[in-house]
TrEMBL record, chains A, B:
Coiled-coil stretches: none
Keyword list, A-Z: Lyase
Name by which UniProt lists this protein: Putative hydro-lyase GY22_01085
Family: Belongs to the D-glutamate cyclase family.
Class in the EC hierarchy, top level: lyase
Superkingdom assignment: Bacteria
InterPro entries cross-referenced by the UniProt entry: D-Glu_cyclase, Putative_hydro-lyase, UPF0317
UniProt keyword Lyase, yes or no: yes
GO molecular function ontology, one term from the record: lyase activity
UniProt xrefs under SUPFAM superfamilies: PSTPO5379-like
Length: 255, 255
């Protein structure tokens, strides 16, 4: 399916995680803040490039751009989250009635981009095979603060057969602009994760025997920082429910 | 010489271009703007990563950081430039009497970092051999605008023996965080450069027969944007007179 067609379905109200959608096109995390907070967010991204690889920025007043030709960032994502005064204030299927002219939108790379490459190499992706959202966890690893923003690293988890962990590292290393290599392999307790079956975002997956939990930096990280830092108003995609962009995946692969 | 020792010499008043200084340590371009302009500058850098690779940012009120352990960004560069209302307002050897608490400092990678690698490969660097500053030119290539900032790409030029141009491309490609591969090889008129002997910044160099002018994106680019965009107040290093940082060069090399 073409990205524009997928965005039209989401604009019409379809709510679904987007892992596996629109093979070959990059998906993006969103973080949207008032202009007064935009420098803090961009500096946070510059200092934390693994969780926050910037694919594009819509300046204040802009609702579309090259990432979503003809689309509207307020309507074209399956599900959004709203934050007020550092607290989650619900989800919604569009942002039309909460939009403000001073909002700046950051689109960040998403690990869904390298999932196709993992699958092509014969590495199973549990959440795709099980038809659920990818599990994500807040860790005890602090990000580098920036201005008024600080918060923990958020990671996504994929259970990889032990014999394929090295391949998964090698393959995802080739995609530095979409989180790149894992930040952690095995030993979830070292990240402060007590129960892999109770992710902070997304869905739990069954981990088959002989599979190892492998953790990648996740673009939900700035949403955790918005919560932690008491940002007065912010918006984001609902975890796993991404902006499907017009950007081809291959351009994020390095030799 | 250790970077701290070089910075101490500059702090004491030595004025000199820094190409060839402190082998093995990264040098940095500076652009310093009031907080009100900081988002525009960081977004300009994000959209123009070849001329503006961000090595570090000192937030408003900060004058030191990990890039210059124990140093002071207001005194430790050999020569600075001042801009007022989009016009050059002279150079000075320190910034103490023009400093403001709301100033944000951006340190950007510098092509001096890969010069040692070129020399190790036996590629001569004319401006080092001739003991002058590297020649730099404003081009007719527009940068991607960001907020209120727009301006032309600035390039540095090295004359490379025709038989070594491919090597120079290959070697500098390994340093994407310090401008990376050339943006242009030969044909200076295509960049709008009419006379290689009259650079806009730095010094002219003799180009030996059989050498080809090769152009790299240059970290003076945001200073050209500050001029072009009428920024009320900004500071920078004087072209070629860089901040010598404590960051080892090798960490900017990719396989």
């Amino acid at each position: 399916m073409a990205p524009g067609a997928a965005r039209a379905m989401f604009r019409s109200g379809l709510v679904t995680p987007t892992s596996g959608w629109c093979d070959g096109f990059a998906q993006a995390n969103l973080i949207v803040v008032p202009a007064d907070w935009a420098f803090d967010v961009l500096l946070f991204a510059q200092r934390n490039p693994k969780p926050c690889p910037v694919l594009g920025v819509l300046e204040a007043g802009e609702v579309t751009g090259p990432l979503l030709g003809g689309g509207d960032v307020r309507t074209d994502v399956p599900l959004y989250t709203v934050y007020r005064d550092g607290e989650a204030a619900g989800t919604r299927t569009d942002l039309l009635d909460v939009w403000r002219e001073d909002l700046v939108t950051f689109a960040l790379g998403c690990s869904f981009t390298f999932e196709a490459a993992l699958q092509e190499a014969g590495i199973p992706i549990a959440h795709i095979d099980q038809g659920v959202n990818v599990p994500m966890y807040r860790t005890n690893v602090p990000c580098e603060p920036a201005g008024r923003l600080s918060g923990p690293l958020v990671v996504s988890m994929r259970a990889i057969p032990a014999s394929r962990v090295a391949d998964a590292v090698r393959i995802t290393s080739r995609y530095p602009a979409v989180h790149g290599a894992p930040v952690h392999v095995g030993a979830p307790q070292e990240l402060g994760i007590r129960d892999l079956g109770a992710p902070d975002y997304g869905d739990a997956v069954q981990i088959p025997d002989g599979h190892v939990p492998v953790f990648w930096a996740c673009g939900v990280t700035p949403q955790a920082a918005v919560l932690e830092s008491g940002v007065p108003f912010a918006l984001g995609h609902a975890p796993g429910h991404m902006l499907v962009t017009d950007l081809p995946d291959w351009q994020y692969q390095v030799p």
